[in-house]
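User: Run a structure prediction on this.
Assistant: Running it now.
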Amino acid sequence: MSSETETSYRFANRISIRILFWMIGFALVATTGGVTYAMLKIEEHAVRQEIEKVNREIAACNMRINQHRAKINTMTGRWNMLTRLESIGSDMRPIESSQLQELRTMRHSETGTATASR
């Protein structure tokens, strides 16, 4: 009886080949899933950083556009322009209302004839 007990006790701690393959397969599936998840998270982080970079560039471009618009508005303001023309000694002067002439409109001109006043 002692020989039966020894033999069954001796084989009790062994793992069958079948269970060993199942354990290896499960470990491969689990590690593959974890690695894939990590790679996708890294890619998502990279895309988020790129989007933030593009948004910062858009904000910087909008700021430059606003600065240029403000500069153009100050340069093309009536009084600023007159001051600059005087400072460079330009011959350009404001037009007086007595110098303006009314142009002919379409209803005053003959049909089918081209005029320089159109």
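The chain has a mean pLDDT of 82.
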